[in-house]
């Protein structure tokens, strides 16, 4: 799980400060304010550690098949107006429950440009509670590496350049001796934490009328959710101990959202093709023929059950095309599955209904402020800013932003005024 995130000079963010991340973290606020950037920063590191090029410092994307995002070039990431130095940085803290030697630690990377315009690490720091490893770029692309509080570097040279933002070369690790083993363990834990991020974007593919099942078990659903039905087919048709676990979990939440009574996979004749059928009010219909809201929330529900324990699930606008009650129930999904399945949810949303239900869940003691974090993000003068909403044990917001979800009291006041005016006019 990620405990903390900080960005400096990254897109609209001059400095986020330390953003505390909890098992359920919600990012709310205005359009184009920088909410998605907070999620994308960690996805940028994820696609970097998954790059086939070990020597790469930061993978800004461009491979449509393997990369999650195409960030463009260095200047597209660097905050406009940044100078002296022209650098941006990413840092985070994590805590893992996986069977790894290093359970928690921190990463810090500052990035600049080389003479050819490529992205290079300027300052690199990995640390645990007792160990610290640092690589600093010097002249002509050489790096010096220090361990803990040593005043003199262990070594200097171009061969000490960090790899994929999370590790050093095998040659550099060998020169660190026993400390190199600790660094390898820490790098592995960081890599696993980033690889365990699963992401679903706001634009999801429309469903097909039927699907071919190739008897495979997909490892993911894709950032647009296009493989969600493949996961459901595997859940229903593969003979294994947890057969139907995912499809039953998805059906349960569709019922709680009151948008379906059951979800079912049906074979079309004796072919290898299958359809997804939605049951509601004693009527069954192909997924293609029901409201768009069901097909759009299906990947959200599927991912919540597919993601392995210990994963961080990042969602953008999970509520799209859902009616208010269904949006509210999403809050219950995040709270319950974060606890039951040990997964972390980081959610970017515009839904007032989702947020209000989170308040209610706090009042009901289904979740505590220590297990959740809410942020309001806005952008002024081309600079993003945020405030952490302070909620008490009853879900009441102590530092409510002006115009957070519009002016509900003002709307009520205006309606009352207009009603009174029209009643007076009618009497005349």
Automatic annotation (TrEMBL):
Residue ranges of every copy of the DUF3696 domain listed in the record: 367-415
Pfam family, one: AAA_15
Domain Endonuclease GajA/Old nuclease/RecF-like AAA: start-end pairs: 269-354
Entries under InterPro entries matching the protein: AAA_GajA/Old/RecF-like (IPR041685), Bact_Antivir_Def_Nuclease (IPR051396), DUF3696 (IPR022532), P-loop_NTPase (IPR027417), P-loop_UCP034888 (IPR014592)
Name of the featured protein: DUF3696 domain-containing protein
Native organism: Candidatus Symbiobacter mobilis CR
